[in-house]
Write a structure and sequence with these properties.
Length: about 190
Amino acid sequence: MLLWQGVQTRVVDARKSDDGPRLIPAPGDPVPPAGATVRGAIDDTRRSTLMRTHSGLHILCGTVFRDFGALVTGGNMQPGEARMDFNLPEVPPGFKQALEDAVNAEVAADRKIVARVLPREEALQIPTLVRTQDALPPLHEPEIRIIDIVGLDVQADGGTHVASTAQVGRVEVVKVESKGRQNRRVRIRLAPA
Ligand SMILES: [Zn+2]
């Protein structure tokens, strides 16, 4: 939210535009006049839950790549719930439970999660840098931010994360669905913090 002159403006979305990020206010909320000094504040519960969820997705895709060799084809998240699609034509028997066990073993291992910014050329040497099929970091960025789940997964990423896998908490693999011949959709849910 934005805080200004004793007033709060709830921000419900943000979009990119040519002249910078554009904040979308909640319908009906007052907006600050042009030139007003504002302070920004974050909903800590929502943000912290999203950080845990996002890190949980990285554990998931690192584990699926390591154990099943499958790349990511898409994904989405809400606080505490997420889905990720994988290019996995053959689903091995017992996949759902094996995956849940493997992900929670990584949570229990309490691996550090580290953000680093590397020169583009150096980052591109990391073989696993781009885990999402057909997605490359923006061409003209001289530096690339990476998220390293130490010992499990390194990838280019611009998001917010918790500092270690234990902070994600227990992850439930809710469902594995077929989405076409190649794609499998994995839905996860986090235990309450
Ligand atoms: Zn990410």
